[in-house]
Specification:
alpha/beta; 17 strands; about 15% strand; seven-stranded mixed beta barrel; elongated
């Protein structure tokens, strides 16, 4: 009985995480060469095989000189038992399919010069059509003609699309490793300051002297969040102008952050600097080489930022460096500031994701619109209608504020247009500031087991897993801070309460400064 219940439960989960997509694959070959092209079909109308091996191969007959709204001028002997490709227009999809079926054709491809949409018809027409029907780009057919000539053999298949993709695991690794490294780096810097005799461990003045910034005033936190709200609204209304300013700032900030990260790695490896002087000005060979490398990476990203096939690797690399440097440079002085900042940003995230769609004209949240760009279709859900451009589109500029990892198993979808899993930098940085504070607090109390740091990292991991689980089950993008903030704040507070250190943990650097300056 228990085994039956488990099997039924797993079957339900499997069904919920596997959906029938409208994108499919057209496989064309001539015996020695083969190519794959994007097609759009209606699963409820034309079920296709899920694998290439299971698909039936048919010779393709070129009839793009006709729209096939009737049988005039078409010989059944020419098309019987073969796949047809005709032009889109002048009559319904179902009419073309019924004509092709009456002529004995086995498959109907409709070449389109306009955007591809899911072919549909009246419910009464579905049962009449017994052959597969799909739309393809006309430019793809012309390309196939140049490659294969007239001897084309075709197969149509629609790989099963699972919501669970390896990209989620990659994104999870990127986020947790970045948060853990950023927190560890912040703690290591704090240990170095204390060992070098920097009293106070975290006062705003001392941090400023060491090149770091500290948020120690609730007023500053409120001003910071208000500034973020204002910036997001400005981006929504003036996106086409401000996007280029943000891209320029990102190039400069990410190159600087990458330099800081690589320089720290070189120090850890005890690499020499190899300094020299020109006109009494000292230069470091290591710094010059690192600066050249970092600037080159940033420039390459800026030039090729719209090349979806590979540029995501550089964007994620620069994004990781940016997040690490941010967590190392900006510090929260105590747990009270952590609670205020994370709580405000939680409200900020939920408001701009869930509430703003009620006020926008297109019903899309301001957060999603800004993150994906005004021309982006956004994350598709099971009920959305797919629309694939028939011609290459000018790339729309997107803000470099997210980690992007392609969905590796979305074969058909990537043929029609690259699909990505995304995670905002804020979903790493905001909880990461709390993780960094916990790491520094471990240094202040000389915790050899790093109990606060490890507990907060585990809480962050659980929060991320919860975020992805809810996203997969609901089929909708989620504001990650909705789960990350409660997980990390509650866990940190519970650890401090259980250890009897809540007063110290709440007061943070203020408490530490008082202890160090006490007679």
């Amino acid at each position: 009985m228990e085994r039956t219940v488990i099997i039924v439960f797993l079957s339900v989960i499997y069904s919920a995480l596997h959906i029938n997509c409208q994108e499919a694959i057209l496989h064309i070959s001539n015996g020695g060469t083969d190519r794959q092209y994007c097609i759009v079909h209606n699963h409820s109308w034309t079920p296709l095989s899920q694998t290439l091996d299971a698909a039936v191969q048919y010779p393709l007959v070129n009839m793009t000189s006709t729209v096939l709204c009737d049988t005039s001028g078409v010989s059944p002997e020419v098309v019987k038992g073969k796949a047809l490709v005709v032009m889109r227009g002048e009559c319904e999809f179902s009419q073309k399919a019924l004509v092709a079926q009456s002529l004995g054709a086995t498959t109907l491809l409709i070449a389109s010069n306009t955007s591809l949409i899911m072919p549909s018809a009246n419910e009464s027409e579905y049962a009449k059509v017994q052959i597969p029907l799909a739309l393809m780009r006309y430019r793809d057919f012309l390309e196939a003609q140049q490659v294969f000539g007239e001897g084309m053999q075709v197969k149509l298949y629609a790989p099963a699309y699972s919501k669970i993709d390896p990209s989620i695991v990659v994104m999870l690794l990127i986020s947790i490793v970045t948060v853990a490294l950023g927190g560890f780096w912040s703690g290591a810097c704090e240990r170095d300051r204390l060992s070098n005799g920097v009293a106070g461990g975290g006062s705003g003045e001392n941090k400023a002297d060491s090149g770091e910034l500290s948020l120690y005033s609730p007023l500053k936190v409120f001003m910071f969040v208000a500034l973020m709200c204002g910036m997001l609204i400005l981006m929504y209304y003036f996106y086409n102008i401000l996007v280029y300013i943000i891209i320029a700032i990102f190039c400069l900030a990410s190159a600087t952050a990458l330099f800081s990260c690589l320089d720290a790695v070189m120090d850890l490896m005890r690499c020499g600097t190899g300094s020299f002087s020109i006109r009494n000005v000292n230069f470091s060979v290591r710094s010059l080489i690192l600066a050249a490398v970092c600037i080159s990476v940033s420039v390459i990203w800026a030039v090729y930022r719209n090349e979806d096939r590979w540029i995501w690797i550089l964007q994620d690399l620069l994004g990781i460096a940016f997040c690490l440097n941010f967590m190392k440079t900006i510090s929260l002085s105590n747990f009270k500031i952590c609670v205020i900042l994370l709580s405000l940003l939680l409200v900020y995230d939920v408001f701009f994701v869930f509430i703003t769609p009620f006020f926008t004209k297109n019903g899309v949240s301001i957060m999603v619109q800004v993150a994906l760009g005004p021309d982006a279709s956004g994350e598709k859900t099971q009920g959305n209608m797919v629309e694939v451009p028939a011609e290459p589109q000018a790339p729309s500029e997107k803000l470099p504020v997210v980690m992007r990892v392609p969905r590796f198993l979305a074969w058909a979808q990537n043929l029609c247009g690259m699909q990505f899993s995304i995670l905002g930098y804020g979903d790493i940085i905001v909880p990461g500031l709390l993780v960094a504070y916990c790491s520094r607090f471990d240094v202040w109390i000389n915790s050899s087991k790093k109990i606060y740091f490890l507990s907060c990292c585990i809480a962050y991991l659980l929060g991320m897993i919860t975020t992805f689980a809810v996203m997969l089950l609901s089929g909708m993008g989620q504001p990650a801070l909705l789960y990350l903030v409660p997980f990390t704040l509650i866990t940190s507070a519970v650890v401090a309460g259980c250890r009897g250190e809540m007063r110290q943990f709440w007061s943070g650097t203020t408490y530490e400064r008082e202890e160090l300056t006490a007679p």
